[in-house]
UniProtKB/TrEMBL annotation:
Residues 266-377 are annotated as: Disordered. It comes from the Eukaryota. One of its GO terms (cellular component) is nucleus. The keyword Secreted does not apply. It comes from Amazona collaria. GO terms for biological process: gliogenesis. This is Glial cells missing transcription factor 1. The lineage of its organism: Eukaryota, Metazoa, Chordata, Craniata, Vertebrata. It is found in: Nucleus. InterPro entries: GCM, GCM_dom_sf, GCM_large, GCM_small, Tscrpt_reg_GCM. Residues 340-350 have a biased composition (Pro residues). Transmembrane segments: none annotated. Pfam families: GCM. The keyword DNA repair does not apply.
DNA sequence: GTTTGCGGGCGCA
DNA sequence: TGCGCCCGCAAAC
């Protein structure tokens, strides 16, 4: 089941070879192929040593978009845009939400913004945040190269991400918007109370269309093969308690500072096995977040569910014509009929003591495709109730 | 405020 | 020389 990075490369190469020109070029070549017969669909999560040729009309390609947190890197070559992966921001306490999901935030691209981000706390347990650096390219971050040539945009990725996928840019933006909204709308907001009261009386839930676009796509609950390999290796590591190691939010590591997780292997945050000693551990292995708030900030984390076998539902991103086509779906695509997962309990508690991220996620998340959904047996189709809505409004104030 | 692209500059192999 | 990375700047959102 697990495939190594080499297999991934071979798979991509095989896929690419079917398109002829795909493997015959390198981003540094003086002359890139002009007889491109196959334009790739945009790959939102390119991984491993892949190459793609996009149309110059492709908006995502034009913007050099990637759902990985990629920052611009100066390669002193104005013709080739180089970007390196920033990794993923994880909870330093390796906490899990009530439904066993992990916190995987998108690192801010800007250095200052990223440092500021790391000074914040885990939205789930208020523990410190850690930047899990990407070391998937010979110990260095995975690099992406973009080169515009005529009517095509050539893309090449070097390295295989050795960390989970962060939330997407849209999700991160939405989370920031919600943070602002939460600042604007206090929990005692009369309008909010009015809505809640009305809802409790009528049993009506807010329309999903009116909800912020925060959906974490099923696809992003996946991980590169090499990462799964890491998980397999890490499975023998001692299992540490997650939230028992809760620390006051004093200072998460700076980008290059002490708090940065320098290597995937050093991070306890992303181990495969949920702590067996974790209170209430079970299929969903919830963690009891500290009741006292150390930070005032609040956000909507991107989380990954943990499967019963202890492995996250990480999925290999297949080749250009594989399920990458599904990955092209913007989070917007889910806004109509699905809701974003609400992976952690309401920051301020709320009237429903049983409110849990698990409930919310199971009720609100998009059902995964059969090939990747291994946790579907946990009451997924329960409808919204007042409790959940109440928490929802705490998390997603009206804007 | 943040992202993005660009480019100067430095250190290392 | 190539690469990684830091830093600052400007434009755009």
């Amino acid at each position: 089941m697990l495939k190594g990075a080499d297999d991934v490369v071979m798979e991509h190469e095989d896929s690419a070879s079917r398109h002829g020109e795909m493997t015959s070029w390198d981003i540094n070549d003086i002359q890139l192929p002009q007889d491109v017969r196959q334009i790739d669909g945009f790959q939102e999560w390119p991984d491993s040593y892949v190459k793609h040729i996009y149309s110059s009309e492709d908006k995502n390609a034009q913007r050099h978009h990637s759902s990985w947190a990629m920052r611009n890197t100066n390669n002193h070559n104005s013709r080739i845009l180089k970007k390196s992966c920033l990794g993923v921001v994880v909870c330093g306490n390796d906490c899990s939400t009530l439904d066993g999901r992990k916190i995987y935030l998108r690192p801010a691209i800007c250095d200052k913004a990223r440092q500021k981000q790391q000074r914040k706390c885990c939205p789930n347990c208020n523990g410190p945040l850690r930047l899990l650096s990407c070391r998937g390219h010979g110990g260095y971050p995975v690099t992406n190269f973009w080169r515009h040539e005529g009517q095509f945009i050539f893309f090449q990725s070097k390295g295989a991400h050795d960390h989970p996928r962060p939330e997407t840019k849209l999700e991160a933006e939405a989370r920031r918007s919600i943070q602002k909204a939460q600042t604007a709308f206090s929990p005692s907001c009369p309008r909010l109370k009015q809505i809640q009261e009305l809802e409790s009386l009528t049993g009506a839930a807010p329309t999903r269309e009116a909800l912020p676009l925060l959906l974490s796509k099923p696809d992003i609950y996946s991980l590169p093969d090499n990462f799964r390999g890491h998980i397999s290796k890490r499975s023998q590591e001692p299992v540490l308690g997650s939230c028992s190691r809760w620390l006051p939010c004093s200072r998460a590591g700076e980008d290059r500072g002490s708090g940065e997780v320098l290597a995937w292997s050093r991070s306890p945050a992303l181990r495969s096995n949920p702590s067996p000693g974790r209170p209430g551990s079970g299929p969903a292995a919830p963690c009891t977040a500290p009741s006292h708030q150390q930070c005032t900030h609040s956000s909507t984390p991107h989380t990954l569910p943990m499967e019963k076998d202890g492995h996250g539902p990480f999925r290999h991103s297949t080749g250009p014509l594989g399920d990458g086509s599904c990955e092209d779906k913007s989070p917007l695509a889910y806004s109509g009929s699905s809701l974003p997962p609400l992976p952690y309990p309401a920051p301020q508690g709320g009237p429903c003591p049983m409110a849990s991220g698990a409930q919310h996620h199971q009720q609100l998340s998009v059902p995964r495709r059969g090939s990747e959904g291994h946790d579907g047996e946990v009451g997924r189709h329960v409808g919204l109730n007042y409790c959940n809505d109440d928490m929802f409004f705490n998390l997603y104030p009206l804007r």
